[in-house]
Amino acid sequence: MPEPLEPEQPSSVSGGRQIPVDDAVSVSGVPVEPEPASAGAHVSDAEASGGAERGRSRSQADSEDDGESGGAKAKKPKKTNWLVEILGVLVVAGILSFLLQNFVGHQWYVPSESMEPTLIGCQGCTGDRIITEKITYYASDPKPGDVIVFKGPSDSWNIEGAPSPRSSNTVIRGFQEVLALVGLQPPNENDLVKRVIATGGQTIGCQSGVGVTVNGKRINEPYLAESAKQVATEDPCWGHPFGPITVPSGNVFVMGDNRLDSADSRFHLEDQYQGTVPKADIRGKVVAIVYPFSRVRVVHSIDPQS
Fold first, then answer.
1. How many beta carbons lie within 10 A of that of residue 203, not counting itself?
2. Which fold has domain 105-298?
3. Which residues contact 48 (CB under 8 A, 6 or more apart)?
4. 114 given a catalytic annotation
């Protein structure tokens, strides 16, 4: 009786031959180790996992950097200390004002009538506020016709009974001195305003029937107050003849335009300067009226000797 046939095992086909799968070899005869599919899968998962971890790390780092950057941007600027800013501005303004007032120019108030009509000042009225400049006299001397502000060079120029510009209180007086440095308070001195008539080395005098002369020549004064012009037709010395005197070098002889109401050099001939004013006591040349606004104008020098 024939024996039953065993079922054939699955085989691979190579070159027309059937080779059992378990006995498969390479063409060269070297056994081929099949790659485990699970190992390849494990490697791919690990790489994916590592890549994901690195991606998350980079994302976290970027997020932290963005957070730090955003935090820096979100910081509010430091608040300004307005008190310090204001004090700084005041200090700078004070220094500039001090330099201007003491080395460039100054503002003054005209309280009297001695320079009318050029400068207005009287009791009960709005006196002119004038500006003087100092730069001109750094390089040159005052000239005839200049209107100047000066400190009374001797005690004879002091006005008896005139109130002091300073308080009797020590603290207030100290505060006033500080304000005077920046031009917000008048100086603690007797300052006056007059016109230069003669300068150092010139001889000036006034004789009845002749009038005011400089170096023997009568001067011409178109700026005089009308009342002074009228009186001069009969009394050209306005009741006060003087001289002749020679003005010391570096000094000036001054007179007011309102000759009938001006205690000028004519009234101080007995002091050590013979009524003249040293250049060191001159505070500046008047260049303009700045108030009241109806009288704002330039103050010109008019040479009486021309």
1. 15
2. Umud Fragment, subunit A (2.10.109)
3. none
4. yes
Return the domain boundaries, the chain: 105-298
Residue type at position 81: N
Q: What is the DSSP letter of 29?
A: S
What is the sign, positive or negative, of the torsion defined by CA atoms of 252, 257, 259, 264?
negative
Percent of the chain's residues with pLDDT above 70: 73
User: Which residue is catalytic, options 44, 97, 112, 114?
Assistant: 114
* Other C-beta atoms lying within 10 Å of the C-beta of residue 218: 14
Please tell me the pTM assigned to this model.
0.70
Taking the CB of residue 191, how many other CB atoms lie within 10 A of it? 17
Count Cβ atoms below 10 Å from residue 151 Cβ, excluding itself.
16
- For the question of residue 249 being annotated catalytic, the response is no
**Which one from 112, 194, 265, 285 is the annotated catalytic residue?**
194
pLDDT digits (tens, 9 = 90+) for 220-260: 999 999 999 999 999 999 999 999 999 999 999 999 999 99
Kindly tell me the number of DSSP H helices and DSSP E strands found in the chain: 5, 14
Give CA 33 to chain center in angstroms: 95
Is cis: bond before 117, omega within 30 of 0?
A: yes
